[in-house]
Every structure is written in structure tokens, then in C-alpha cells.
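Pilot study result, target chain (91 residues):
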Amino acid sequence: DNNNVIATSEGKQGLMLIREQCMRREVLGVLKRILLEHLIDDHTWFYVNKQAAYAGIIAICEDERESPLGPIKVEIKAKDIDGLIEWLTRF
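Predicted structure:
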């Protein structure tokens, strides 16, 4: 039973909604900490609450148990991952 859905995006455009919503909800600091904790080589990841995402809201989860239906795992890979994290989490 594989419930994985994979979506791919090139460039920063695919992350704009996440960046904008995290900025509005004032959780960029939390997002940055999580991205840095999960940073390995040229990639990192974070969880998003599945129920909130279905309603169009980006709610960052620090632990997969925070999303009762299971979280959405967002994986990011970039040549300049440090620069991307800075851009994504800049206030």
C-alpha cells in the first residue's frame, strides 16, 4: 500500500505559497530551524499538516504526530540549498 504522491517543481516559484503563508503566520523562524535540522548535503525536508493543506493553509508540523491524518512531507533539493533556505525563511 503506497500512498505517496510526488510533485516536482523547478525554481523558487513552487515554494512561493509556502513562503508567503509562513511569513503571514509568522512561522519563518520555525521553518528555518526545521529545515536546518533536516539538512543533509543538498537537500532538506519538513512536514505540513494534511488537513490544513486540504483547506489551503500551510501549517508546519514539527513532528508527524501533529497531523492526525498523517503529514505531507515536503522535500527540497537545490544546488545552493543554503541560499534557498535563506530566501525561503527571510523576513
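One observation from the pilot: Helices lie at 16-24, 28-37, 50-54, 81-89. A full batch analysis is planned for the follow-on phase.
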